[in-house]
Fold this sequence. Notes:
Distance between the termini: 12 Å
Order of helices and strands: HHHHHHHHHHHHHHHH
Low-confidence stretches: 1-23, 213-217
Helix content: over 70%
Radius of gyration: 20 Å
Strand content: under 5%
Amino acid sequence: MTLAEPAPLPRAGVGSFPARAPERARGPLASVLVANAVSGCGTTMTLMAIPWFVLQTTGSATQTGLVAAIEAVGLVLSSVLGGPLVGRFGAKRVSMASDLVAAVAVGLIPLLHAANGLPIWQLVVLAMVLGLSRAPGDTARYSMLPGLTELAGTTMERAASGYDGAGRATRMLGGPLAGSLIALTGPPQVLVLDAVTFLFSAMVIAVGVRGLDTERPERRHYFAELREGLAYLRSDRLIAAIAGMIAVTNALDSATITVLMPSYARDVLHSSVALGMIIGVFGACALTGTLVYGWLGHRIHQRRLLFTTAFILVGPVRLLIYTVDPGLPAILLVVAVAGFAAGSINPLLAVVEYGRIPVHIRSTVIGAIGACALVGMPLGALLGGLAVETWEVHLTFAAGGLIYLCATLCPLVFPIWRQMDAR
Length: 423
């Protein structure tokens, strides 16, 4: 399938609706946006609370990186293996189950900590379960989007921007909220609230997305569909190039979010509230950038140039600012610009992916893309922790920024990326 071909609607059970709905219905799409927003808020709070919890209880950046790496391993595994589950059991069921498992995994951390002090091996196990729970739900909600967009009678650019923007809006609030609550009550209490957000997300999908899985999902052979999805990923060079580039940048982002920024906030800014402000400003400006792309995205023809410019601002520029200790106001200014640029990246990629990937293997290919994109995250988190303790945080930020720059220049160097501009 080329970008010039209109993407057909998904099959029943994988986020599908009749090709011609008798009337426009925006309620199911709105429900998925709300669920994605609430789940994103919980994920943001977890990303802050767990590293801070490990730093507070162990004082070790290495153990913090280890826990983050284990969670990322679970995320990668579930990205590869979870895609066919969406086609087999239905997007709605998989989304709900994913949030319920995440709620249990996060909720057990403060419970076990209060009971027995939570040895590191128990935290590692729960981090693995949490990682395994995340990708199937993300893939399921992502797979619902084309059919819900058709039913709502809107454009793919606007729906993808709304989907990404809804998540960014609550991540914008989740960062400052988590930072303030960590300072006021401590990480365990924040994790209890995280568990509640995942339960609420599951409830929204259960109540608001009706009729999505009323037909029996197609019972294709699990490994046959998995092989077909992976074969497509190997055959589409642009999608493979996107996944490869994101693998590198996500590894760097994993180290930055889970180790470098908490360490910088603790050792240089001396405040979890400052860390929450940084995440909140990034989220607010990313939301603005997402909304602007939703408004103007269908008019933009130079996707490759927009993609590259946005990534340079999000990666090298944002990381290198921490090497000079400019103070919190300057950091927030740079983070604001980077956040605005980041707002266009995910919806732009969604438009490209939905336009190229055949519908019958969409959830499997999306899962495979996610796995490829996330494969470097465990190593990034682990190496980030080791680098902070070996080199200290400023030199680690400098090395990460230079590697990020090399990765983000690829779309300007290799011809295959020109296909991003095709329609």
